[in-house]
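Hi everyone,

Forwarding the result from last night's run.
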Amino acid sequence: MLRILVVRFSSIGDVLLTTPLLRSLARRHPEAEIAFATKRDMAPLVADNPHISQLLALEPHEPIRHFAARIRAWKPAYGLDLHGSLRSRALRMFVGCRWSGYTKRKIARTVLIATKLDVYRDERPVPERYFDAARRLDVKPDGSGPEFHLGPQACERVAAWLAERGVTEGTIAALAPGAAHATKRWPVASWIALAERLSAAGLQPVVLGGPADRGLAQQLAPVATSAAGEFSLQETGALLARSRILVSGDTGVMHMATGVGTPVVALFGPTVRQFGFFPYSAPAVVLERPLDCRPCSAMGSKHCPMGHHRCLDDIAPAEVAAAVERLVA
């Protein structure tokens, strides 16, 4: 029995972008068992994926040696390290199998941020770079996007939640104004103006996010229904699956939407296409500004280095609403 271990510990988008590789592995090697190793809080992203035979979740505070012992008991033949972190390298030391990884292009990224000189050459998106780790297994990208498979309980809870609030399935415009880093956030006033425009067009804005986004969602309360802090990862995916559109920044929610087939309008500021995280193989419009100061960081930061934040502030609500209209038409 061929056993293939795939490792990606975090985060939301990175985990979901492994799913095109999982799908191709399962199709090319239907006799194989595929195990996916990730953090416990990321496990719901792949828990219902039909291409995985076993889900191996790293528990909070679990020593990597203990986790490695559990993996060794599974006896993988191949290990695909799609994380490239200290933790995944330690796993490679403790689990004996044929390991391989992929290149994160850190030097090219650093050069682009520091000098604005593009030396990438290979501009494949991250989901396709992951395939480099599986070069011994004879798989290629199939051109389809990520997959976020949902369990029935998540779908049922979201359906009930929407019914209680009078939100009609098929008219939802999901909005994700939050982001871990401030420079990835579009101004609140712009989100409010967008929600007003979408409501006037017959859509029902619903704000998504975690518990930390409740205060931000409250500022949109007069013009949008708040679901911030209400849902698990799977339930958020279920709400996105019932939405006509998602508007978000460069965040994991964007990849969740593409994973359930929901069109996306993505607002990119400090990060750029070369990093490899644009919406992958999905109906999407990316809005960005061709400023000389972009990119300014790999993942966003607390403050705009130039002090103006024009990369996102200059994107007008009318432009975003027009992109939404094109995708939902």
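The longest helix spans residues 152-164.

Cheers,
N.
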